[in-house]
Amino acid sequence: MPESRLHNSIKVQRAKHDLTQEQLADRIGVTRKTINTIETGKYVPSTVLALRLARVFRISVEELFQLDETEKE
Amino acid sequence: MNATKDELDRSRRQVLLGIMIGYSVWLIAFLLLQDWRLPIWIDLAILGLGLVGCGYWFFQLLRMLRMEKMLRRQPELADAMNDEYVQQKRWKAWKFAFIAILVCQAVIILVNLWIPFDAGIGAQLTIWVGVVSSIGSFLFYDRESEDA
């Protein structure tokens, strides 16, 4: 069975839009800690939060989050 | 707004830690003041320490109430402080505390087979385990990530 790992480009998008974690947190109504844990892949956000993040960067959710599937040994 | 959020987050952690410490000091003092036949000056010292713990506990509870009152006036800030990640951490902490309470009860029942003790002490210990395990595990899950 393939093992799924979720990657995201939030850090890259933040840099592109010149946003700090604090500013991004303000835009979507969460704490900075939440942005940090999503960015580092420690927390997988809900669909609503993923859509809100994608909306801030004006890209699709698929562009922001990518599923990397590797075969489990 | 985020400086406030970060400050509030720090305050929340301090309040929770304060409640945990204050309540623990008070409860340990309460348990030590049971019929252990200690010299009176030790009893008085323990009583004093317990009262300090109790006072600190109440002070932190007042801080928490003040924080809640402030957040009630700012629903957006309240929502952000209680976002889905915080709710997930709270849920994990409750699960941990539930298991801790079950284990504590099992230990109390087993110990009571050999050394019978007052049911009130058992109940106090269970409440203490519940408070410490729920708050402690929330603080653990809520700690700042190192790779910011």
Task: Explain what you see.
The complex is a heterodimer of chains A (73) and B (148). With 73 residues, chain A is of the alpha+beta class. In chain A, 52% of the residues lie in helices and 19% in strands. Chain A contains 5 helices and 2 strands. Chain A has a two-stranded antiparallel ribbon with strand order 1-2. In chain A, helix 2 (21-28) crosses helix 3. The N and C termini of chain A lie close together (9 Å). Chain B is flat and about 55 Å long. Chain B is mainly α. Chain B is built from 5 helices and no strands. Chain B has helices spanning 2-32, 40-72, 75-81, 84-114, 119-141. In chain B, 84% of the residues lie in helices and 0% in strands. The longest helix of chain B is centred in the middle third of the chain and has 33 residues, at 40-72. In chain B, helix 1 (2-32) runs antiparallel to helix 2 (40-72) and helix 4 (84-114) packs antiparallel against helix 5. Chains A and B meet through helix 2 and helix 3 of A and helix 1, helix 3 and helix 4 of B.
Series of secondary-structure elements of chain B, N-terminal to C-terminal: HHHHH
Number of strands of chain A: 2
Whole-Å distance between the termini of chain B? Answer: 20 Å
Gyration radius of chain B, rounded: 18 Å
Number of helices of chain A: 5
% residues in beta strands of chain A: 15-25%
* Radius of gyration based on Cα positions of chain A: 13 Å
Tell me the structural class of chain B. mainly alpha
Overall pLDDT of chain B = 91
Structural class of chain A: alpha+beta
Total strands of chain B: the figure is 0
- Count of alpha and pi helical runs of chain B: 5
* Helical percentage of chain A: 40-55%
For the record, give the distance between the C-alpha atoms at the N and C termini of chain A, rounded to a whole number: 9 Å
